Amino acid sequence: MIPRDYHQDPFIVIWELTRACQLKCIHCRAEAQYRRDPRELTFEEGKVLIDQIADMDSPLLVFTGGDPLMRPDVFDLARYAVEKNIRVSMTPSATPNVTKEAIQQGKEAGLSRWAFSLDGPTAEIHDHFRGTSGSFDLTLERIHWLHELDMPVQINTVISKYNIDALDQMAKLVEELGCELWSVFFLVPTGRGKENDMVSPVEHEKVMRWLYEVSKKVPFDIKTTAAQHYRRVVIQQKMRESKNMEQQIHYEMALQEGKTGRIDGLGRAPKGVNDGNGFVFISHIGDVFPSGLLPIKGGNVRDESLASIYRDSPIFKELRNPDSYKGKCGVCEFRNVCGGSRSRAYALTGDYLESEPACVYIPKAMRKEKKKA
């Protein structure tokens, strides 16, 4: 199998079908509204976009929002994409829109997985985060419905100051709910998200080390989003545990090639994905961004193809060059496999090439310089 070239084709495409949503989450990237925007890509425009995605070596496609279920044609779009041999998952909001009929429609359309957000092990924590009373109980009920209809379930959790002290209970709940994958997001202060909602850099590191230890014990898989330095943490931990020189060399090679693992059915990439580097986001009106958390537009699919924007837009090309990163990220030996969150760098410094503000690691090159001084 020929490895995917991120300079040519993304590993994952996120399409924000709509910004309409019945919830009002305190961290919402999209600052979602209750009504649909009349400028949304039409069904026919969506089909053209799906054709373009298929031509880019059929990356993973995620329907997001807002709430994708606010679009009545969501399952027709999913069916069309599946017919093009694209693997499609969806992240709907846990609202009354999630009926058993809707779940059945999704299954028949060929959705590979549903993902629900669960941001705390209790109603008090989750409902506060989601800005809607009763959201926690409704989410648990819908997860049970998905199991009844044999639909694979993913849980998304945003790490913030509101739930950092409840993560042990959260992991236990994910296990009790029988979910296949726990996708752990680290908050980026954009949209409604605020910097004071974030955990500190030291807490980022502690949570990531905790996640690595948890991943060795639980029956579900764990992946992270907006937490590129989790890859560095995992490789460091594995190198510490390894007594085998051959394995040590393997990890050193992984650093040089940007590799972190293998492709699997859960959508984890074999090498480091970052904003604009293996990752692309399309807004409800067709604007193309390196990610939904990095609001600098590379183009619009109504004006040019997704492939030309992804491959040739200056911001995308710049983001795919780790040697252009500034500060400690630019000299870090983990920059090819990690690279830090470009979105968080932009949100907190105004420069998407600056160092990851939430990383505590000091690169070897900087430590050597300090010793010389």
From TrEMBL:
Keywords: 4Fe-4S, Iron, Iron-sulfur, Metal-binding, S-adenosyl-L-methionine. The lineage of its organism: Bacteria, Bacillati, Bacillota, Bacilli, Bacillales. CDD domains: Radical_SAM (cd01335), SPASM_MftC-like (cd21123). InterPro entries: Aldolase_TIM, Elp3/MiaA/NifB-like_rSAM, PqqE-like, Radical_SAM_PqqE_MftC-like, rSAM, rSAM_sf. This is Radical SAM protein. SUPFAM superfamilies: Radical SAM enzymes (SSF102114). Pfam families: Radical_SAM (PF04055). Residues 7-217 form the Radical SAM core domain. The keyword S-adenosyl-L-methionine applies. Gene3D superfamilies: Aldolase class I. Its cofactor is [4Fe-4S] cluster. GO terms for molecular function: 4 iron, 4 sulfur cluster binding; catalytic activity; metal ion binding.
